Amino acid sequence: MESIHEKYMRRCLQLAQCGRLHAAPNPMVGCVVVAGGRIIGEGYHARCGEAHAEVNAIRSVRPADRELLTESTLYVSLEPCAHFGRTPPCATLIVRSGIRRVVVGCIDPFAKVQGRGIAILREAGVEVVVGVLEEECKALNRRFFTAQTLHRPYITLKWARSADGFVDRWREGSDERPAALSTPCSLMRVHRLRAMHQAILVGHATLVKDRPTLTVRHWSGQDPLRVVLGRVAEGELPAGFQAYADIRTMVDDLYRQGVQSLLVEGGPQTLQSFIDAGLWEEAYVELSEKELGSGVPEPRMPVGTVLEMDRALGAVVFHYTNG
Fold first, then answer.
1. Residue 274: which of 250, 293, 308, 305 has the closest Cα?
2. Confidence category of residue 314, pLDDT binned at 50, 70, 90
């Protein structure tokens, strides 16, 4: 049976996801304030540079309930920050609010926090419980955690394949259109995936043959930073695109730019290069009902990955995780 702490932490996780499209490069965080078995305040981090979840939760407490703060418990999915960034430290705000107990989902891996927020609370006499639904809290911010611990973006691979294992027919020139393997509904899913990443990448051959816009025009959200891998001749690179000749340079540079998530859409050689280098965390492979007979083979996934299958939106999508 779920404990009281888990019940309210799960609400924090629900709230945190409201910031999915705009919180990056900050983590998604949800927070609730509970007094007498009743939620008297809740909030989440909506957008980078704006108020954090704890601030919004405390602000949302009605004037009639503010006297209950000294008797309340604050639940938050990620350790309260301990440093001055674009906003003041949330740990200090909690202490000043009079809240005497804080339940934290997981410790923040960011070097300027990483236990310091918890230390501020405990030094002020606040009781702190850490590790409630810890794995779920970490999974929610897996992109943020990857950037903080591996110093590179979280990398997701994506491609569509025919029923007989091809990603495209053989094409002689750029005037030939690629094989249409996605459905209108699954195309929306792809654009939703784009909106959830800060950058998107294709290889040079895909750029030249398909001239993709790589936008989120079929979903709500901000267009990701557009990246091309490979040697690009003068005049080939569209405005707003960045080009790199090798993966390592690209990954390092994106990290320095603050990019925490990268979606790799192709082509197959580019996708295979990430797979062979072990530089990926997730892969989404859409299986079309169409058969091409012959064409460009799909990338080869390594044996032993975790496999899930989703039949949502009228398409079969295989979801791989690396490890």
1. 250
2. low
Residue 48 structure tokens: 């980078």
Distances 277 to 201, 247, 257, 273 between C-alpha atoms, Å: 16, 9, 22, 6
Catalytic site positions: 54
Q: Most confidently modeled of 32-46, 161-175, 294-308?
A: 32-46
| Range of lowest pLDDT (40-54, 168-182, 197-211, 268-282) | 168-182
Q: Is 24 helix (H, G, I), strand (E, B) or coil?
A: coil
DSSP 86: S
In this structure, the number of other CB atoms found within 10 A of the CB of residue 138 comes to 17
Give the total residue count for the chain. 323
Residue with tokens 């901000």: 222
Beta-bridge partner residues of 189: none
Specify whether the CB–CB gap between 81 and 117 falls below 8 A.
Answer: yes
Beta carbons within 8 Å of 231's beta carbon, 6+ residues apart: 204, 245
Average pLDDT, the chain: 91
pLDDT band for 86, please (50, 70, 90 cuts): low
Burial class (CB in 10 A: 0-12, 13-18, 19+), 119: middle
Numbers of helices and strands, H then E, in the chain: 10, 15
The sign of the dihedral angle between the CA atoms of 216, 181, 155, 145 is: positive
Containing 59, the helix (H) or strand (E) segment is helix 53-59
